[in-house]
């Protein structure tokens, strides 16, 4: 064998060995080498999160484009040279991280290992386990029992009642620094079954709780009742309490993290956009995390970035702030004089800056004084006093030292905080002096006129630039626009994008070149307060498959909504309008549009604080971004419904052809009405035609009738849009047709929920063959006298009789779990 061939084989063998999933005594890991789990889901090795010259040993997802660590071994001990550092099995059988200068940087530290012949194996669940080679079924140590900031499915968060050791999550210090941060999620150390998020390891600052376990859910997490992705389990034994969960779908990538923002978040990887999407987060308010902005930082829920420094202060470390590490907070620009003890008798005393509508910080001290001026003086007389607040009802409160957890623009529970600053930070009002010199007075008058004219010119210039006098943000981060600003942005509403039941939509451009879509609402009779309340609610609803609301305008009878602009327009333009063959969406794109739309509706129905029923699902209300990711538009414009669905919507809404029979029958409208409309739209996504469009090749005027028939004959692929030339996954087409038929069942109890629709389309659960809806059966039985089913919604008596008949039919189960 030649030396060159021998060298090649050795290198190939070395590369192959580190594609394996284990570390043994003879096979350490260092440098750029990594382990890959048997199924390829996870990798382990040295990674660099962004901080210069700092490396860490960690585990990350191996099948997604964005490197996302889930576990870090030496998070508080970074490594500067991975080439000279090894992760290896030590002489005592433990897994250790070491280099020449530090024999033990990190270790599994398992005592009384009977054999030094141990093996570290990376499992496909993301769990790194240490095993005795002679007893491979015995786990000596596992990473999933020592979580860092990520809680993987199958892992425990709990408390060992014997040792008092807690399995908890700790945030990263910053977005690029995995060392231990200041936010923790852990089970109550006092033994109750509730979880707390705490700040700085202090139970004095637990700012969120899950509530106690009631046998099914945590009492303050009602969203668990609407879960369709996860299985939860809370376990209590004499030795430990813990909570664990699993993901129902083996193909779904999901993670639960303690974020650097102080929020716990459930995130799901979305392959279409190659991004993590937020599934669930607590606390609900961005400013709900304690001391999010650090000392002398203030949080505003309605603007981005949320944090800034209060007047007279600047960021202690702008670099850290950019990485979301605000633990250092802000420092004073000018030191306090505290002139009472100053040797400089001429130094001007400190002054107080009023901060209106501010959420007052903790750790105040109540002083018994008689007036606001006495309260101010009491603070001024103490050099440690940094702020005071006075109210005739509650009296005088003062703060010593750092101010934390400040929030501004608090609508309720706020007050006026008087912040102590150096006198030079607060501009004193000019003192009036008598001017007897006529020349000086004339010069002053002329200067005043020039200043006035300059101000007028600046205001006119800013108005022409747009959005100069914008109102302050309201709840939910929405901006209140002036009507004149939106007129300019839309060039007097000259470029119409479309229209619908609630009004017309126009394209516009903000001064910063951001494209927007402005909807002029028509026929609304709400008062100002009610309108703002409903719009505020819409603004808090955010999901990757929902169109984002940026702001609104309410001036007299003019009511407008400002949305993000969707460059690909609405779905109907891609399905029904004439276009080149190359521009027709292929089946893969259509299937992802159907799935994304279902996810957006699931969020509205099952994961919002209140169930939001859309009431007008149709292709015109499904908008597409530049990557054809679908986003549901116009949600929330119909009336909000409570979770118990006890209220009834009595006003006819929606579009004929997509309306469920219950709109006519007068029964309560639930989220199943949206399911029906979604099913009708899904038929159109499959066929590329309006359901009621006649075609010679169909020999029938209503596509759902043909679809139900073809489905029962096992020929679903023939239903595909003819422009696709049969190019579509047969299993997916059949699955979509089954879903559509189940969604349009006459009896709403027989229809699946949108959460079940998502599961079916994802392939998580199997779906049975649906029965033909009664109304479709009527059409199929009378081919010589075709009556479009869409017309049934305009004939009350006919629809009522059909609904009455269907209500006597017992509903059947529409889905069955693969498991």
From TrEMBL:
Pfam families per UniProt: B_lectin, PAN_2, Pkinase, S_locus_glycop
Molecular function in Gene Ontology: ATP binding; protein serine/threonine kinase activity
InterPro entries the UniProt entry points to: Bulb-type_lectin_dom, Bulb-type_lectin_dom_sf, EGF, Kinase-like_dom_sf, Pan_app, Prot_kinase_dom, Protein_kinase_ATP_BS, S_locus_glycoprot_dom
Ranges for domain Apple: 338-422
Name the UniProt record assigns to this protein: Receptor-like serine/threonine-protein kinase
Annotated spans, Disordered: 796-819
Chief site of localization: membrane
Transmembrane segments: 438-461
Signal sequence interval, chain numbering: 1-19
GO cellular component: membrane
Catalytic activity: L-seryl-[protein] + ATP = O-phospho-L-seryl-[protein] + ADP + H(+); L-threonyl-[protein] + ATP = O-phospho-L-threonyl-[protein] + ADP + H(+)
Binding-site list for ATP: 520
Family statement: Belongs to the protein kinase superfamily. Ser/Thr protein kinase family.
Membrane topology listed for this record: Single-pass membrane protein
Superkingdom classification of source: Eukaryota
SUPFAM superfamilies documented for this protein: alpha-D-mannose-specific plant lectins, Protein kinase-like (PK-like)
Protein's cellular compartments: Membrane
Keyword field contains Ribonucleoprotein: no
Domain Bulb-type lectin stretches: 20-143
Keywords recorded for this protein, A-Z: ATP-binding, Disulfide bond, EGF-like domain, Glycoprotein, Kinase, Membrane, Nucleotide-binding, Serine/threonine-protein kinase, Signal, Transferase, Transmembrane, Transmembrane helix
